[in-house]
Amino acid sequence: MDDAVIKRIQRDPNYIRLVAERKAFGWTLSIIMLVIYYGFIALVAFAPSAIAVKLFGSITIGLALGVAIILAAIVLTGVYVLRANAQYDDLTKAIVNANAVGGRK
Amino acid sequence: MNRLIKSGALAAALAPLAGAARAADTGAAPPLDWNALIIFAAFVVLTLAITYWAAQRTRTAKDFYAAGGGVTGLQNGLAIAGDYMSAASFLGISALVFSTGYYGLIYSIGFLVGWPIIMFLMAEPLRNLGRFTFADVASYRLQATPIRAMAATGTLVTVAFYLIAQMVGAGQLIELLFGLPYLYAVVFVGVMMIIYVTFGGMIATTWVQIIKACLLLIGATLMSLLVLAQFGFDFNALVAKAIEVHPSHEKIMLPGAAVANPISAISLGMALMFGTAGLPHILMRFFTVRDAKEARKSVFWATTFIGYFYILTFIIGFGAIILVGPNALYHDVKGALLGGGNMPAIHLAHAVGGDLMKGFIAAVAFATILAVVSGLTLSGASAVSHDLYASVFRRGKVDEATEVRVSRITTVALGVVAILLGVVFEKVNVAFMVGLAFAVAASANFPVLLLAMLWKGLTTRGAFIGGFVGLIGAVALTILSPGIWEAVLGFPKGSALFQYTSPAIFTMPLAFLCAWIFSITDQSTVAAKERVAFEGQYVRSQTGIGAEGAVAH
Q1: Does A61 touch chain B (CB under 8 A)?
Q2: Chain A residue nearest residue B454, CA to CA
């Protein structure tokens, strides 16, 4: 890509939208995941006895949280893929076509 | 003693096979397990056939390093799961839950949470910018020689420590189950991985990993179902019984050793989460798919399979407490677990499914080790041939055929080195090594890669210094920790200067800080050009324009 093409793509409204939306979405989901996980680690580190508190029967907060965090990780990645498949790929295609750079090698 | 338990705990979980009680040490050789042998032999024959098939399809460098770039998202997700779920995950975590309860499950969680981060921040730009190794991405707009040298060093250190743990573990496991002497076992593993990688390259490695992932998922599912069936599929009843049976009773629901101190807990969390995002053999898998979309799907499938597997470790671990713990059949006269501390999962397989199930799970454990060492070896060989030889030593003036030949020679050399290391470290407790691999990946590979992709200001100087500070810092602090200083080097208890579980909480921020400071203060004209070049790199990383496509055969 030469500089002219780069400049043109950077001014493309679709590109601006793609970058802005993906950045915001990616960081939002990352921060959600970090908060969930380090919230859990903080609980382990600073309030370990809370981990063993029983919720129902012998199932403790720690067990429930563990499964919930694993499921959250799967769900969050799934959410990202769904949105990316629905939006980002179309925007990318539009950018590639509009700027006539021949697409992929 | 108490501190030793705490500081050794990460290590114990990560490379559990190593340093456990050894069959050879307990006297008589164990009887040969024919079920395990036959199932494992079937796996070997099948994977050799695949290697033969893959060898016919491995012509170019792209075939060798990246399986031609045509692996689908689902296939790659399975292969990533096969590459990532080592014997440490399976045998180690279940052994840790068996002995300490909930503490082991903290690892199950920590091993998974790096994946969403890879998805949200790294997978797509990584695929759009790279060809064969993560150094391609790190050096995309920076100077090739220093950055590739740094990335290759990070790769080789990570791979070496990971490999030692796997080799020693494999040797001990095979010795234990088949009665094969340790040396033969290590040589066998080394030779198998040389055959897979040298002849079949990434294509064979991918399929070995896919088959292994399927076997491991099937095996773990079967075991979990058989365990749950004994408790009327009531997880609550399972946990209640485990609390009743375990000598520590209610205490097994506490996080235990993880709370040695908060810094250790957080540092461990960082090493697990960000180390995942810096493992070179895992990052390399992203170049085997066609485009960013398939890379994205790969992460989703990988996260799903790995997450599912770790949820099963909850059931398997507690099941082992109940069905293996009090059963005299699995203990020697002194009350020690037969075969050493890492065997609860194998014994549990026997407890719920008899000899056949035990043989199957034992065979799966080997397949697991073979798949992981193959991925590691390929990654190490690529760092030598693609980064060091082709880019640094020959300055890019080398044809593909020569580069691949160097990669194959390196694979053989790495295999021989791995065998030698396996022999040298036979009697050493190498439990800290996977922990060290994760710490180095989190402290050197991850910061440089992330900044190179996302931060315009990064310069060669910043990346080089930041990466090496993280690398050297992580290795040095690990050596100064009780796991090596006291347990391996034999200094008196309490003399270790670094008392935390993992160095990541210090070395990872330090690497970022150094990369930042030495970048913003870099006034050279080269640095100015590198900042400008970020524009084009960023456009490509976001759109995939100019990215490597797939090759159709």
Answers
A1: no
A2: A23
